[in-house]
Amino acid sequence: xxxKNTKNDSDRPRKTLINGSRYVAARCxxxxxxxxxxxxxxxxxxxxxxxxxxxxxxFARLIAATTLRRLGQIDxxxxxxxxxxxxxxxxxxxxxxxxxxxxxxxxxxAAVGAAVSLLKRSKKTISAAGMANAxxxxxxxxxxxxxxxxxPVDNLPLWLKAxxxxxxxxxxxxxxxxxxxxxxxLDISVKQDPAFWAEKIGGDVLxxxxxxxxxxxxxxxxxGFKEGAWWAQDISASLPVKLLGDLxxxxxxxxxxxxxxxxxxxxxxxxxxxxxxxxxxRLKFIEENLKRTGLTANIIAADGAKWRDSEKTSxxxxxxxxxxxxxxxxxxxxxxxxxxxxxxMRDVDHLIRVQERLLLAAARHVRSGGTLLYCTCSxxxxxxxxxxxxxxxxxxxxRLIPILEEEVFTLxxxxxxxxxxxxxxFFLTEKGGMDGFFIARFTRC
Length: 445
Hints:
Number of helices: 17
CATH architecture of the largest domain: 3-Layer(aba) Sandwich
Number of domains: 2
Number of strands: 12
CATH superfamily of the largest domain: Vaccinia Virus protein VP39
CATH class of the largest domain: Alpha Beta
Radius of gyration: 24 Å
Shape: globular
């Protein structure tokens, strides 16, 4: 009797923590869908999330991310059982509960019981507990049959599905949807010796030198992180710097630099780097990462569209200017599935005007014969190819430098007829895919 009670007492806190993970996941999904908050920001603002252990935080994020990745299919399963759309939080509890049942192989008693328990915690939601119990039990019994009638393309918002089908074709759109539902690997850029660190962390070296590990996990616990030997950076995001050639002692301006992956690449390559960004809170990430990695850069908090170089060398300009412009970030959905539900065509309309101003501002800082590199992590052609065409009309003193096959390793099919790079998320599918990206390189005549 005594031993039984002791066992129950030790189990109870763990059960509470797991339900805490489910609470965090549901609240995050609510904040993303109702208020348009980024998933990581939503998590960081929930007090309970900070109290969870590492594995429980990971479980919370897995549930939330899976729900956002599979939202179209989840709703297709839930809708036949829902007579009236629930309030935002009960609806999020339903969706995260369904995600566990349909995709995470959570036992029905655990997923259903936790959902009911979460809704019973508040007088405002207790009335929805019975509804959730009935619906999720139906999902546990019949959900897989309904799921078979859905398609991964259902998870794409209609405006994106239409735009991507028009730009790249229906087959490409289907491939995009199929890579969306896969958990992404961890990509890291190392200061030196990729082969050593690949063996150390249980990863592989990709042709570009990026080290890839199958599971992300808690990156701060991975060997080499605290020592500053590497930083997390998707292979796509690492390519632009590699297109600038030898950077030793070159003066480089990294515009819109936060969170700093490219800044660290530039510094590690021996460049004299000026990292510019108007978001002071995001610049702190650069400062922290530079300190951790032992790299240096001149950090400036300013609006890139208005900033002027005050150094004595300003008349000569920078050897290279890299503009990773603010964009809709629709190419990053593998790691940030919330972006699909937070962005709209209106956001793109606004962002292309911002990009236009920044691109013209970036051009001012390029010395004669210098290089301007423009890139976005968007799959929208209006934020890539069309932006380049407008820039070339506005600045006749710039011309495209075609990107060559040997510069993109095995991604030769990513090069356009004009010599730009358009990376699709399903490239390298056999190795886990990559972020959608666009890159164009210019020189000042």
